[in-house]
Amino acid sequence: MALIRRRPNELVNMRDFFDRFFDDTSLRPSVFGTEIFEGRDIPVDIIEVGNNLLVTASVPGVKPEALHVEVNEDTLRIWTEASEEKESKENTYHLRERSYGRLERFVTLPYHVNADKAKAEFKDGVIHLSLPKVAETGRKEIKVTAKA
After folding, report:
1. Level-2 CATH architecture, domain 42-84+99-135
2. How far apart are CA 49 and CA 46, in angstroms?
């Protein structure tokens, strides 16, 4: 039997590959020449400052009470629902570009964060999150003692 070397980062690398695949607009499927996800992304910036990750996300036109943010270990989820305005039969649209429906973004954070101590502020269509990093536990030796 041959030994196969295990690379612990293979799954992380695969996850990063798929994250980039679905984030890359040039790789997205299209329907009739219009991208399915056109106008559906929530642009996000993540900056590390000391023991915090500062996340800034643009959600223009969204009311703060309609915006939802969720953190699960190292994954950030931002989402909202935008309802479509009723189309008037009296008026004719010459251009209609605004998106309606569910806007959602999942982001893999570089660290696990403490959601209980997170802070969020919303101003002018931009949400600012401060997410405290959780201290890395790392490898730790456990001393084994004999039981009499």
Report:
1. Sandwich (2.60)
2. 10
